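name: query_chain
kind: protein
chains: 1
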Amino acid sequence: MTKPAFSLDIGGMTCAACAQRIERMLARDGGFASIAVDLAADRVVLTAADTLPDEEATRRAVGAIEAAGYRAFPRGGSLEERRLARDLREAEARAAARWLFLRAAVSMAAFLPFGIAMVLETLTGGGHHWIPPFWQLGLATVVQTFGAWPFYRQAWHAVRGRTATMDVLVVLGTGAAFLLSLWHLFDGSAGHGAPLYFEGSVAVIAFVLAGKLVEQRAKREAGAALGALEALIPEQVEIRDGVISRVIPRREVRPGMLVVVRPGGMSPVDGEIVEGVAFLDESSLTGESLPIRRGPGERIQAGAVVSGGALALRVEAVEDETRIARLARLIEDAGSGASGRVPLIDLVTRIFVPAVLAIAASAFVFWLLQGVGFERAAIIAASVLVVACPCALGLATPIALMAGRRAGARLGLIVVDQGAFDPGARIDTIAFDKTGTLTRGQPDLLAIHAEGDANATLAMAAALAEHSDHPLDLALRKAADARRLAVSAAEGWQAESGGGLSGRVDGMAVRLGSLPFVQQGGAGRFDALLAAMPEADKAQPNSFLVVNGEARAIFVAGDSIRPESGEAITMLRSEGLETVMLSGDRQEVVDRVAAQLGIDRALGAMKPEDKLAWLQARIGEGRVIGFVGDGLNDGPALQAVAVGFAMGTGTEVAKGAASVILARPDPRLVGRFVALARRVRLGIGENLFLAFVFNAVAIPLAVLGHLSPAIAGAAMALSSISVALNALRLARWRPAEAR
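structure:
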């Protein structure tokens, strides 16, 4: 029997090569049947060999990861253990963020005088050092020792792991620039016009650190789902012991206790209803679009919101055993949907670093054989490394991602995880939740079937609904307000838990609610109204109105489709993307919405586990999927896919689990993100191309020994400027239909 997989969180990964290095170290151990390192989620999912005990597998995995130069954080089984591990990981991340900010600030401050000097040299044609050479040495030394320390540490681990990463490239380029400048400074040639490249080494480190700072902050903004989920459930719980009620902390609640949930409150436990009738809003847990009437003998989940009455529950599960706790574990354990593709910059780095080293070594050997002497050959080889110094290369990806986030913000897209742009450009399937995503998530009045004036009956029903918090009653009041109807005050108003409302309006006895409730008052039969109703209206939730004992009206409510949803689906399908709906609502409701919108495939009655399993199966087939949701039940799916989209009006759990938040409830923004992601990926490619154009010109000159200070300075400055200007153009991008 195959052992279940387990997860460890990882600290310190910066690129795809880091993930590959960790995989190699774990594979070298030999104790694991499967290894999957997820760079986007900063974690590894492992399956231990059958002969390896679980505790030993965890210990060996932690050892291998730390031997590779990273931090490993095992996940506990209970929510409390996981919370403590997460707190430790976040504390270390905050400390690392403070150090990164300090290094970036110091490096940028050191670069500022170099930047001014570079502008002055360009304007005046050069010829002398605007910053005294030893001042340059001091500034560059601070940056090389303090600012660049993380690059040297990661480069050392990369070399030990026999990989070429961006860190190796930064260390090689900046180190060569620094050492060559130091040579010219101390042999006296700097005073006779020999070039100094201190500014190049400082610029690269400063810009790459700035990019990492933005990337780290974006990562810290993501993954807030679990904290939001924990904060959702009430900490204090009212329990009844005989006739005495008291409030105790949730952690002290035990199965068998009697818990009281008041109207408007949220159930803190899973349990069986023993007293009371109420409507339960479980839309964020199950996807059901409308509240469900529940009474004695029926069950309720933690996280369900109660309206229309108070309930007394016999506790069956609390804390780690509740349905919502299992949902929390699903969210944390869901894969990020990474496809295993290596980001473009890492592919480039793998080729570029060995190529530059080979060219520099060949140039050194060639000129040494030509008899120019060791010093001259060494200077030519170092010049190759200097001109290949990756200022523009290091800037190409982070500046394009920052520009993409800015362009997204202008469109109404909050890109929480900038790593979403790469998979976003390759999405081939978009899966939607229904309730609150393609639909409004709140019942609206869809139709009135009335004896007599429909507006008069609506005004009478709205008078009773004025003091009710039931969603169907809210729909009646909203419809009356929209029609600007004069609504009288109800007298003798009463509410029956889970049944309906009664009172007197304009001197008439009025009852509003379910059919069994209104017929308790001896109401006439609704046969004629029901017979005239379309079948589609009968399938929707209905409220019945009785006036003075006579059947007067049937109000049809339902979760209405957002007006933008149809255009959103059309836009995605026109781009060749498959559209799917995964909902916890009834299959007949899901089919009706899918047919109206033209969605390719629709699946209903799906629990969070079902959505997750369906998505993971498609991901296993090689599909790149985006998922759009808004509720608690969407958390695992949002974490599992390549890009998770949360509605800005959704729950904090959904927004915390998503990569992209739609600032306004407009599904069309999903298609616009896909278009933006494709443009960002193109922009990164353009930036890398621009960076390499200058290297293609300057490196041969360096190999031939004809590299002058002006050419080196111009190559560095122009490549960086061209990359920055291209990013500025990207930041102003808008899709054609939004212009």
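note: Confidence is low (pLDDT under 50) at residues 221-225, 335-342.
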